[in-house]
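Most newcomers find our protein records easier to grasp once they have seen one. A learned vocabulary of local backbone shapes supplies the integers on the structure line. Here is such a record, shown just as it appears in the course material:
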Amino acid sequence: MSKRLMTGLYWFLAFEFALGAVTKYWPGDTVFSSAYSVKFAEWGYPSWMRFVVGALEGAAAVLLVIPDKRTRFLGATTLMFVLTGAVTTHIVNHDPAVESWAAPTHLVIMGVLALANWPADWRDLLRTPAAPTAGTPRPSNEMTRP
């Protein structure tokens, strides 16, 4: 995929989540739905929790547009945690699919972006160690010599 297209995708997703963050702080009904203070209470959360979720979404949106793999990784993983909570909330509250399709869709997208931006120095944690080949000298151990 071209770099411009990927940059556009990051900006588009950041815009979506920044807009979501603003609607969490909005005191009344929004263009998209009813007030989040009411929604969070209906879902069983304190209404102030919307500010925490909104702050996380806003910070993650900023991290997504910074053209660095580490910041994009942090933004995507932050949103994965938030979206996991959103998906779980929709499942537990038996929300209709027409109202809750966006959270699992964005969760999958953020998972792909988190994997795509996995920091290079952390990739060794996922690789299996390679067995030494015949040409590779083995480290000597002074304790095993007779």
